Amino acid sequence: MEIKHSAHAGTLESSDLTVTLQPATAGISIALTSSVAKQFGDQIKQVVTVTLQKSGIQAATVKVNDKGALNCTIKARTIVAAYRAADKTDYDWEEINSWIN
Amino acid sequence: MVENKLGRQIPEPYASQYGVYTGEFTHIKHYQRAAAKVQPVKPRQPKLMQSIHDAIVATGLKDGMTISFHHHFREGDYVMNMVMAEIAKMGIKNLSLAPSSISNVHAPLIDYIKSGVVTNITSSGLRDKLGAAISNGIMANPVVIRSHGGRARAIASGDIHIDVAFLGAPSADEYGNINGVNGKATCGSLGYAKIDAKYADKVVAITDTLVPYPNTPIAIPQTDVDYVVQVDAIGDPKGIAKGAARFTKDPKELLIAQYAAQVITASDYFKPGFSFQTGSGGSSLAVTRYLKQAMEKQNVHASFALGGITSAMVSLMRAGLVDNLLDVQDFDHPSAESLAEDPHHYEIDAEMYASPLSKGSVINQLDVAVLSALEVDTKYNVNVITGSDGVIRGASGGHSDTAAACKMSLVIAPLIRGRIPTIVDDVNTVVTPGASVDVVVTEVGIAINPKRQDLMAMFKDLNVPQFTIQELRDKAYAVTGTPAKIHYGDRPVALIEYRDGTLIDVVNHV
């Protein structure tokens, strides 16, 4: 999957987050703002990175604004942002299911 | 550094100056009670001053002195900001501020700290912007956090000597008789202010309701008051009840409350004449409600309910289920009204409520206390002062006092809040030692402190899921992930006094 244009998913409700993806030439870089950055900042970045990689994205500029979301929410918002940025709508649920946990 | 009994590192010189925590009751020793310096008032000598400015001049307030306020107006307080503005204008510096607590409305204190008007603070708690500013290190000297009982002890033993107390008075006469039940901003009990009135050298009553002599009922008597000042408004009645929760509909909070009520009613303490204290949080109020149902059904009435009083407790007394309310502070208007009307609703001071160095405080007679927590760790230590990010944002309150003295303490809290686990390996800051905590109640079940084998036996057939505290932590971490440790700086910004005056923990800057 390749990021074609900027796209985002999520809200700023508590326990949610917004994930914004923009095209990049190489690598995944994440700018994180989080209400739980001190306790979970590294874990949030890790989850976003792994989720993007599993979705087949190797390069992206990512902006995450987190309001204390759990990992399951972070994964879901990241996947949706990735599909939107890649203009893909054919979710392969079985494939996603094979790695999401 | 000195390691205290809980393994917390207490830096010098504070460890030597205060001593370090060695156990719940190991530091209770006889002492000489402190007393105020008194300037007697002669016949025909007036106490009424024209302005706060004149009153401050009359008290002889000088650089380096200690001043105090009470926090009965909670988020509706105008008095501290009003007096501090005048003090700052007069150019007085280097003051020690010793209020019973500090609320969000007192954020202007940040400016007075920066300008050197205030250089030391002791308080039950610090909130919001001020808590964050102090955690970021705006004060050279660390704040001393004291419990309500601990503050009363510190004042009675002379650890805190108040030079001038500025006491907001819902009503007062020109000769200084004060109560909290009449006036425009009625806060009800003046339990924390009574201590200041008794022990401060100079006492200024600040009122917006000046009534003819004598102002009865008399909560604080004229014999303790030097000056009286009339102002337009001392507080916002809405702010007094701000944060006082209505009955929650949150299913998680209701389940916690239900489990807590089950624990209480299944205990041997639940019998005619028992006593309890519940707080003002959503779950706490719901506990009171569930208790009411059980008390009605089993025809068990309580001899007294204690503490911060809420309308939920008042309704229990009106229903004939509680014989007496012993009231150090009111959290809402109906409670203040009840204090005015019902002789069995009785005003007590902070020393009688919770001081470990009084000749026996009411908490020593208490059966069951329901307390809240920001964090509980696997040693049952409780944090109610710093957030999970290490920033000071809470208050010690009567937590460690009540937990230590009552026969069974319940700490109720959700397993997680958002992504923040409540049950953790190590709390950021210890306020109440695990030795004082008997049962932890969450929405997934309870954990009984293994030191209370009697309770384990008592609750072995209880229809509430039971876990070890480690299992509760694992359940929390399974949802949130394991939180990273907070990185603190090396400068202490708050000393956490245990109720006996020794240091139980220290908060460093972040």
UniProtKB/TrEMBL annotation, chain A:
Entry keyword annotation includes Cytoplasm: yes
Keyword ATP-binding attached: no
Q: Under the cellular component aspect of Gene Ontology, which terms does the record hold?
A: cytoplasm
Which Pfam family would be a valid example here?
A: ACP
Q: Which residues carry this modification: O-(phosphoribosyl dephospho-coenzyme A)serine?
A: 14
Q: Where in the cell is it found?
A: Cytoplasm
Task: Give the main localization category.
Answer: cytoplasm
- Keywords in alphabetical order, please: Cytoplasm, Phosphoprotein
- Which NCBIfam families does this UniProt record tie to the protein? citD, PRK13253.1
Known function: Covalent carrier of the coenzyme of citrate lyase.
Q: Which family does it belong to?
A: Belongs to the CitD family.
Subunit structure, as described in the record: Oligomer with a subunit composition of (alpha,beta,gamma)6.
Q: From the Swiss-Prot or TrEMBL record, give the protein name.
A: Citrate lyase acyl carrier protein
Q: Which organism is it from?
A: Loigolactobacillus rennini DSM 20253
Upper classification of the source organism reads: Bacteria, Bacillati, Bacillota, Bacilli, Lactobacillales
UniProtKB/TrEMBL annotation, chain B:
Q: Where in the cell is it found?
A: Cytoplasm
Which keywords annotate this record? Cytoplasm, Lyase, Transferase
Enumerate the GO terms in the molecular function aspect.
citrate (pro-3S)-lyase activity; citrate CoA-transferase activity
Q: Name one GO cellular component term.
A: ATP-independent citrate lyase complex
Q: What is its main location?
A: cytoplasm
- Recorded catalytic activity of this chain's protein: citrate = oxaloacetate + acetate; citrate + acetyl-CoA = (3S)-citryl-CoA + acetate
Example GO biological process: acetyl-CoA metabolic process
Superkingdom as given in the UniProt entry: Bacteria
Coiled coil feature spans:
none
The EC number(s) given in the record are 2.8.3.10, 4.1.3.6
Recorded hits in NCBIfam families, A to Z, give: citF (TIGR01584)
Q: What is this protein called?
A: Citrate lyase alpha chain
